[in-house]
């Protein structure tokens, strides 16, 4: 039973971290001309209306609204794909009404030879995703993203980038993600894998990190943001594992995050380290 809907959470602080990393990884990989096969294992519906009842109920879009409000003070040029993307999706430039999800961020960055395969299991989300993808050179598969990814590897293109972004509605997903990541890496060791996880008071994400740490995987960088004023319920932070980040990614991504960490912006601390060095 799938009950999670990203429309309640689009544009939150975790999306900013995740989509900032996604656009930076892709642009760094695209410094080389060879084609990239991109996979989005849990894609959502691609475009979110921030004025919808769902978005207004939680008001989690405060993350992207704050980023937008402080955009002129962002020092890192690596925010440009995000600010330009937000600008192109929004006619009203004062307050954002539309937020693009991961397939839309991928799509904006694709070059002629690159490809994107997006998995989504929820029937209505998958339908919306398929409608959006029509005519956009995006393959949508209405199937389990973890099993589906393994069926597609090794990729047809020389290089691989994968976003694994489940809703973690079921506790077993933490272990499933770790197992899938290892199997995917065994099929394509040079791929760049971005794995998002929530940081909750339950601490369930620790099992995912531990499983990865004990695996044969190499070169895994970890970024965690921790809210200074966490809500009573829900996420207190947000994490990313990046397997095989492009050289220099850690410094450039940390600079991006430093731009928005202060109390005037999103108000969090950033911890980062090599979970597994080379
Ligand atoms: N990646 C999206 C983004 O950044 O805009 C957000 C994805 S949301 C966190 C997780 C999505 O995974 C939901 O849309 C949910 O319906 C979908 N989902 C849940 N279980 C799935 C599965 N086994 N395979 C593929 N999609 C699944």
From TrEMBL:
Pfam (any one): RsmJ
Coiled coil: none
Record-level GO cellular component terms: cytosol
InterPro entries: RlmJ, SAM-dependent_MTases_sf
Gene Ontology MF, one: 23S rRNA (adenine(2030)-N(6))-methyltransferase activity
GO annotation, biological process: rRNA base methylation
HAMAP family: 23SrRNA_methyltr_J
Protein name: Ribosomal RNA methyltransferase FtsJ domain-containing protein
Source organism of the structure: marine sediment metagenome
Lineage, uppermost ranks: unclassified sequences, metagenomes, ecological metagenomes
